[in-house]
Amino acid sequence: MNLISQCLQKLTHRRYVGGCRSLILPGVLSAALLSISTGVAWSQDRATDAGKSRGDWQVTLGAGPLVMPEYDGSDEFTAYPIPYFSITWKDRVFLNLERGLGAYAYRDDRLQLGVSVGYARGRDEDSSDRLRGLGDIDDAARGNLFARYSLGSLSLGLDLTQDFGGTDGFQIRPNIGLNYALSKKVRLSPEVSVTWSNDDYMQSYYGISPAQASRSGLQRFDAEAGVRRAEIRIAATWDITDRWFTTANVGFGYLLGDAADSPITDSRFQPSIGLFVGYKF
């Protein structure tokens, strides 16, 4: 309860009001990738199952607001409008906000193996006073190898990502999720994950080079590879009808290692709250 109270206090802090003015559409994809994967992924699976009787194509569209820190390590918040889409063809080829364009190399009732190429948004130094003088981080294409294994309602997942451009960073994200049905229409989907990032990613996002230190006034800092983030996400999905659904998502992220010790990090605690409504065609 203390963690939840802390999250609510941060989100209702006066600085959130100012942050809400920054409804920046270019930030949509990066925010969504961090915050909606747990709840809408389950809805996507449901849409795919339902779509098996509707032909080769399964399409889900939706949108909703998301509140999260201005950047990773910030203690100020920004609200983003998030479009959501998921398109699957013959249960093999997909296009969605979480992973981009990809395909399943293998898929059955328990095991999923796949590859995809998506979008990794960079960081704009003008998005926060704290980042001034650090320079921009360019957008990049993000390659992803993923695996997921289901044991009834429990699932074990692993994502390996490589950015091509931007930070050129490599990351590993193991996760454990649970799908728990409260009723025929309402389901909870908690997930626990950790993220390991290599030197390139860590130095780009959390390090301060000598040149950056002279421009920004921040102390020089070398950020090395390591586990940078642990996270708990809880999503509640309600099937309003056979086609309409809504998902509420609350995330509790916590920065670790050099990500937590970086001069740009004002808060290790990184909460987020989102609410999304979707329609399955």
Question: Concise description?
Answer:
The protein is an alpha+beta fold and 281 residues long. It has helices at 2-11, 14-19, 28-35, 37-51, 199-206, 210-216, 257-261, and strands at 57-69, 77-89, 93-96, 100-107, 111-120, 140-151, 154-164, 170-178, 180-181, 186-197, 226-239, 244-255, 269-280.
How would you characterize the overall build of this protein?
This protein has seven helices and 13 strands. Residues 1-53 have low confidence and may be disordered. It has one domain (2-280): Beta Barrel (Porin). Strands 1-2-3-4-5-6-7-8-10-11-12-13 form a twelve-stranded antiparallel barrel, surrounded by four helices. Strand 6 and strand 7 (154-164) form a beta hairpin. It has 281 residues and is an alpha+beta fold.
